[in-house]
Design brief:
The protein is of the alpha/beta class and about 160 residues long. The chain is built from six helices and five strands; from the N terminus they run E-H-E-H-E-H-E-H-E-H-H. Strands 2-1-3-4-5 form a five-stranded parallel sheet, with helices on both faces. Helix 1 links the parallel strand 1 and strand 2 (about 30-35). The chain starts with a strand and ends with a helix. The longest helix has 20 residues, at about 135-155. It has a single domain (about 5-155), classed as Rossmann fold (3-Layer(aba) Sandwich). The chain has helices spanning about 15-25, 40-50, 70-75, 95-100, 115-130, 135-155, and strands spanning about 5-10, 30-35, 55-65, 80-85, 110. Helix 1 (about 15-25) packs parallel to helix 5 (about 115-130) and helix 5 (about 115-130) packs across helix 6 (about 135-155). The structure holds 5-O-phosphono-beta-D-ribofuranose. 5-O-phosphono-beta-D-ribofuranose binds near residues 13, 37, 39, 65 and 66.
């Protein structure tokens, strides 16, 4: 099966981005986790993204905070899908990162998720969903996940 890369701008993003990793583990999807910054290590980001297809990576999840350019920069170096997660950090609590990630110029798309942990979780679920287009087993797992989730909600009424 194709792999996913989880990249983040700083070690301070790790706690949030672990939520992406947890979901991918739950679905048995192999993934790389790397700290690489659009601003602090721009050359290494480019190199990693360009070499990713050789490692069977098909989807990028990018978490970054503040002036969050990581997802956009990754997208500039690949035609593979890029899912951006704005970190809930800094003086603006992620509003800055949300706008930096979501407001891409036409032509270079970044699929942007919500701010923080929910966004990190959903980025991984969306990656699973994309991979499930060509993988019936994964599609079944995803349906089962949704079913269990609904059951949990309904149990809370008892
Ligand atoms: C961004 O700057 C990172 O993604 C991080 O969310 C933010 C702050 O980084 P640190 O100063 O905590 O390393 O590039």
């Amino acid at each position: 099966m194709k792999k996913v890369a989880i990249l983040m701008g700083s070690q301070s993003d790790l706690e949030t981005m672990k939520k992406s990793s947890d979901i991918l583990k739950e679905f048995g999807i192999e993934h790389d986790v790397k700290i690489l910054s659009a601003h602090r290590t721009p050359e290494e980001v480019k190199k990693y993204v360009e070499e990713a297809p050789q490692k069977n990576i098909a989807i990028f999840i990018a978490g970054a905070g503040m002036a969050a350019h990581l997802a956009g920069v990754i997208a500039s170096h690949t035609t593979l899908p890029v899912l951006g997660v704005p970190m809930e950090s800094g003086a603006l609590k992620g509003f800055d990162a949300l706008l930096s990630t979501v407001q891409m110029p036409g032509g270079i798309p970044v699929g942007t998720l919500g701010i923080g942990s929910a966004g990190a979780k959903n980025a991984a679920l969306l990656a699973v969903s994309i991979l499930s287009i060509e993988n019936k087993k994964l599609e079944e797992k995803l349906k089962e996940y949704r079913k269990k989730q609904a059951e949990q909600v309904l149990t809370q009424n008892k």
